[in-house]
Amino acid sequence: MVTNAIMEAKTHMKPQGDIGNMQAAAGDLGNGAVHILTIPFPAAGHILPHIDFIHQLLLRGLKVTILVTPKNLHFLNPILSLYSSSNNVETLVLPFPSHPSIPPGVENMVGFPISFGPIFMEAMAELYNPLFQWFQTHPSPPVAIISDMLLSSWVNTLSSNLNIHQLTFMVTNANSTLPLVRKGMKKLSPSMEQFAKNAVVPSLKSWGIIFNTFLELDGDKMEIIKEEFTEHDRLWAIGPLLPIKATNNERGGPSSIPRDEVIAWLDSCNRVNSVVFIGFGSQISLTKLQMEAIASALEESRVRFIWGIKGDSQNMVPLGFEDRLAGKGVVIKGWVPQQAILDHQAVGSYLTHCGWNSALEGLLGGALLLAWPMQVDHFDNTNLLVDELGVAIRACEGLTTVPDPNKLARVLSKSVSADQPERARAMKLRQAALDAIQMHGSSYTALNSLVETLSCIRK
Questions:
Q1: Residues near 327 by beta carbon (within 8 Å), at least 6 away in sequence
Q2: What is the pLDDT of residues 189-204, one digit of tens each?
């Protein structure tokens, strides 16, 4: 049973008001004079934090042009809506380059496994010539490019040939970046070695590097990167970036259940920390056996839950599951209003793949992370949060691993029914993250420093 003290702490701990604008009080540092081009990578887990980052640049007075392809333009709706009366944000919409391994009409990685990452990187590199020509003909072209980490290899070359600066926006943290570039730190699979060579290593050769993390969590690893891999100190920790708030624009895409209905259901759960949220992001597809194991664990644990699934033919809950647990939980197919769910005081824990965006959202929402790392940086994030910091619990591990339903049921049940030391430590880390993005905090100061640096650039 949750104690009154913890219930009170949870109520005050949950973000109140427009938390998405907590980093926003810096004023017009850029004075609208400096023009920057930003290039997100076409995957939801990259585009969304990139947009939140752009929001912070716009709040500080920079002029930003965002490069997207036509079918990714909808991701920009919230920020375009928010700045509809401003001349400081523009879009550059270029056709998505064709690629023999990407089906016609597909322009982002939603629904594709991580193995398609290098293929999309190859396709995006074909934008080099159109972009070069755009710069040559623009009456007032950008003085710098900020690109996603996965695009650094060719954007570095483009920037050099244009004689402008290039900065890399890292959607991962420094802790998970180090193993990819530090020889001998850990053995990488051949595919990950190639990934590190083609994507991560070039990103560290950029003129500037921007991490969605905060110094109090990641400062020591950033210092190692600075000492071992860069020849400058233009590294900024500007996170955790918070989702922008824009009226009447759903973040990401459509859902099978409207956000208001999801929140209304959570409101009906009159106990703080009593709901488990289950979600594995836009890239992970669970197997039939994994779906059955989770369903069985939920049934056995009898916890209240929200389960976000991709909604395709593979990710289907077992027949009869929703009927048997009617009223006990909500299954959302398609896009999930994840941050709104995690911010609700009824949500106590979060079974997650531990991608960095999701980990930060869970941490900020005050949910106890139940980590099930599956690929790429998930394992390093889990090691950091579970083993080094003790702020999360390891629930399972591996992309194809099928958890024991009985053991998973116990983890789920305990996560919402008992006080755990991990939760107390997580609350301290959460406060450190919130302090970092408040006025005069480390990330707030770093954002101002970044904008001041960009504002001093002249062609």
A1: none
A2: 666 666 767 778 888 9
Amino acid at 385: L
Q: What pLDDT does residue 311 have?
A: 65
Closest CA to 135 of 125, 124, 127, 126: 127
pLDDT at residue 250, rounded to an integer? 59
DSSP reduced 3-state for 317: coil
pTM: 0.88
User: What is the token pair recorded at 368?
Assistant: 């106890």
List, by residue range, all CATH 3.40.50.2000 domains of the chain. 20-246+437-455, 259-418
Phi, psi for 372 (deg, rounded to 5): -130, 80
Sheet holding 208-211, edge to edge: 89-93, 63-68, 35-39, 144-148, 165-170, 208-211, 235-237
CA distance 171 to 255: 24
Q: Residues 98-115: pLDDT tens digits?
A: 999 999 999 998 878 777
Residue 368 contacts residue 393 (beta carbons within 8 Å): yes
The angle subtended at Cα 198 by Cα 193 and Cα 200, nearest 5°, is 80
CB atoms within 10 A of CB 327: 8
Which residues are identified as catalytic? 46, 148
Report the interhelical angle of 405-415 vs 288-301 (nearest 10°). Answer: 50
Residue carrying structure tokens 């002029």: 63
- Res. 12 pLDDT band, cuts 50 70 90: very low
Position 23 pLDDT exceeds 70: no
pLDDT tens per residue, range 108-167: 988 787 778 889 999 999 999 999 999 999 999 999 999 999 999 999 999 999 999 999
Residue predicted with more confidence, 290 or 6:
290
CA distances from 95 to 98, 105, 154 (A): 9, 10, 18
Four-residue CA torsion sign, 83, 84, 86, 90: positive
* Dihedral over alpha carbons 312, 313, 315, 319 (to 10 degrees): 130
- Superfamily the domain 20-246+437-455 falls into: Glycogen Phosphorylase B; (3.40.50.2000)
Contacting residues for 197 by C-beta, under 8 A, at least 6 apart: none
- Give the end-to-end CA distance of the chain in Å, rounded to a whole number: 62
Q: Residue 338 corresponds to which tokens in the numbers above? A: 């994840």
Q: Which CATH architecture has domain 259-418?
A: 3-Layer(aba) Sandwich (3.40)
Percent of the chain with pLDDT strictly greater than 90: 62
Q: Is 157 helix (H, G, I), strand (E, B) or coil?
A: helix
Alpha-carbon distance 381 to 360, whole Å? 10
Q: Rounded distance, CA 35 to CA 457, Å?
A: 10
Q: Which two tokens stand for residue 335?
A: 């896009």
